[in-house]
Amino acid sequence: MGLDDYKGISEAGELRAIEYMADKLRGRSFLHVNSTATGGGVAELMQRIIPLIRELGIDAKWKVIKGNKQFFEVTKRIHNSLQGQVGPLTDKMWDTYEKVNKKNGDKMDLDADCVFIHDPQPAMLIEQKKRGIWVWRCHIDISTPDKVMWYLLKDQVKKYDAAIFSVASFAQSLPMPQYMIPPSIDPFSDKNIDLSEAEIDEVFERFKIPRDKPILLQVSRFDPFKDPIGVIESFKMVKKYYDCTLVLAGGTADDDPEGERILADVMEAADGVEDLHILSLPPFSDKEINALQRGATIVIQKSTREGFGLVVAEALWKNKPVIAGDVGGIPLQVIDGVTGHLVHSVEGCAVRIRQLLQDPIKARNMGIMGREHIRRNYLITGHIRKYLALWLSMENPGQDVINL
Questions:
Q1: Count of domains in the chain?
Q2: What is the CATH number of the domain that holds 267?
Q3: Exposed site from 65, 135, 212, 391, fewest CB < 10 Å?
Q4: What is the pLDDT of residues 297-322, one digit of tens each?
Q5: DSSP characters for 86-98?
Q6: Contact at 8 Å (CB) between 296 and 215?
Q7: Domain containing 235: what range?
Q8: pLDDT digits 0-9 by tens, 117-144
């Protein structure tokens, strides 16, 4: 895939801007580091963005830190605390976090003209900086973090040259420039490319999910902040009025040891509920997720905390109305009453589901509006343009660089 493939989908001016900036950065090195190669939105973004940036003549690389179960248990606690869940972090835990980061830093070649470190897990790699521009790219909602946890992490974050957040409200008091760059989807990825009806049918048949009634779908990690149990409760309320099916499709990630426990809780909550299908998908189930989203009547994302919720953009791209929690970056995607509905409770979610099931024309129109909203604002080309513009603007302060 190259930039030319996006002509006719992305805005022409956006593609010209990328070419202009890439000419100035050709031959330079651009390194990204995160905590997992599979599972989760960051890994998916890296799988698509890095090859495209390479096609532009920039030496883009992606590396993943390594850690044991103990390390990822600690970083999950850090992650949850930054999203507002209070949880003590002992000196021993912080020591584990520090030592694993140092061990990775000693082994990794982190030399590049521009380095993006994604999220808290590898944040302490900043201690290894020797040259170049280093940016901390935070994908999670830290608008109301546990104060103690943020105090500890801020000591590392403030050593970076800049920080990026997905939503303006996530920004914190920091001594360096901060930028808002939301994540994106790639319309040519396996998760978003067009599928035939036969391909969609094959996936539903394989999972033994009948398509003879409206299908409600939530795709997410099995994570308490995604509120899968709340979705089940909403479904039970809707089921009293409409004969429909609920599919909860999710999986786990290498850096999320909590997933298996949450899945067990979801299975317990689902016991005895008719027309409910729980799918624990392995990594790289992109085509399956694509088919499930395309076969759904309504997509749900009832998050109680959310960094951005890229799965919302994926569903909207497929012309599906989305009912989602009014948190994080979701309101940037779900324009309430236009591309879907924002909700604040189990009961509210159930009411909105019933309304859309009752009015399929309204649901269809929301899906059409949703696809155009994503095309204009959240495609991968816009993401790349903003990354390159940030890099150029930091290397050339005060000069006229294309706006983010």
A1: 2
A2: 3.40.50.2000
A3: 212
A4: 999 999 998 888 889 999 999 999 99
A5: -----HHHHHHHH
A6: yes
A7: 197-377
A8: 999 999 999 999 999 999 999 998 899 9
